[in-house]
Amino acid sequence: MEILIQVKNATVEIDGKTILKPISYRFENEKVYGIIGPNGAGKSTLLKIISGFLTPTSGEIYFHGKVLTEPDKRIAVVWQKPYMFQTNVFQNVAYGLKVRGVPRKERKEQVLEILKQFQIDHLIDQKAKSLSGGEMAKVAIARAIITSPQVLILDEPTASLDPQNVLEIEQLILKLKNQFQMTVIMVTHNMFQAKRIADETLFLHSGYLIESQATRRMFENPIHELTKKFILGEVHF
Ligand SMILES: Nc1ncnc2c1ncn2[C@@H]1O[C@H](COP(=O)(O)OP(=O)(O)OP(=O)(O)O)[C@@H](O)[C@H]1O
C-alpha cells in the first residue's frame, strides 16, 4: 500500500491551548478512514492539518513524501454544511473545471457523467439553494471530486440526513474508493457509520489519538479503556 498522507508528531496549539497532542499516523491509498470521538476531541482540527488548511504548531504533514504547507488540489475537502453557490447544480459542480480552464463542452460532459454516477443528473438545471439536504450533500461531493483528487476529506458528510440519504451517501463513499480508487477520510459522529464503511478507524479524545485500528478489530476488540467506553456509549459528550 502506498502512503499518501503522513502525520508526523503533529500538534496544534491555539491561543496557548493545545488542541491536538502529538499525533503520528499514515493514511494509505484506496482506503476509507473514519475519525470518531466526542465533541471537542480535535477531529475537525486533524482534518484541517491533513488538508493543508492549518499548519501544525510542531511536527509535519507529508503528502506523497513532501511537506504539505498549503491546500493541494489533489486533496479535496467538503466541510460541514457546505456552501452552495447561488446558481444551478451544473455551475456548482463545474466550478473546479471552470477555474482550470476546461472548455464548456467538456465541462458539460464531465458534470453530466458524475451526476449520473451519483444518480442526480435530473437535478442539473435546478437551483442549488433549493435542493434537499441529501441532494445538497451529493452535489457538494460531486463538486469536490470533479477534478479527480486522490483524497477526499469529509467533515460529517451525513449530519442531519435521514437514514435513506445516509445509506446513499455511504454507498457513494464506497464507490469513490472502489471505482475511483480514492482515499476517503471522514469525520463522523456516528460510530456505526465508521463500522459500516471505514477500513480503518481513528478514535480521538481530548486532542489525543487514543487508538487507531482496522475498523473491525477496533469495534470487536478495542485496546484502550476509553475506546471501549466510547463504543459502549459510556463516554458522554
Ligand atoms: N480556532 C480556534 N480557536 C480556539 N479554539 C479552537 C479553535 N478551533 C478549535 N478550537 C477548540 O479545539 C477543540 C477541538 O475542536 P475540533 O473542532 O477540532 O473538535 P471536534 O472533535 O471536531 O469537535 P465537534 O465534534 O464538536 O465538531 C475544541 O475545544 C475547540 O473549541
TrEMBL record:
GO molecular function list: ATP binding; ATP hydrolysis activity; phosphate transmembrane transporter activity
GO annotations of cellular component type: membrane
Domain ABC transporter as annotated: residue spans: 5-231
SUPFAM superfamilies linked: P-loop containing nucleoside triphosphate hydrolases
A Pfam family it matches: ABC_tran
Keyword Nucleotide-binding: yes
Gene Ontology terms describing biological process: phosphate ion transmembrane transport
CDD domains in alphabetical order: ABC_PstB_phosphate_transporter (cd03260)
InterPro entries for the chain: AAA+_ATPase, ABC_SmlMolc_Importer, ABC_transporter-like_ATP-bd, ABC_transporter-like_CS, P-loop_NTPase, PstB-like
Keyword set, alphabetical order: ATP-binding, Nucleotide-binding, Transport
Protein name, UniProt field: ABC transporter domain-containing protein
Organism: Tepidibacillus decaturensis
Lineage: Bacteria, Bacillati, Bacillota, Bacilli, Bacillales
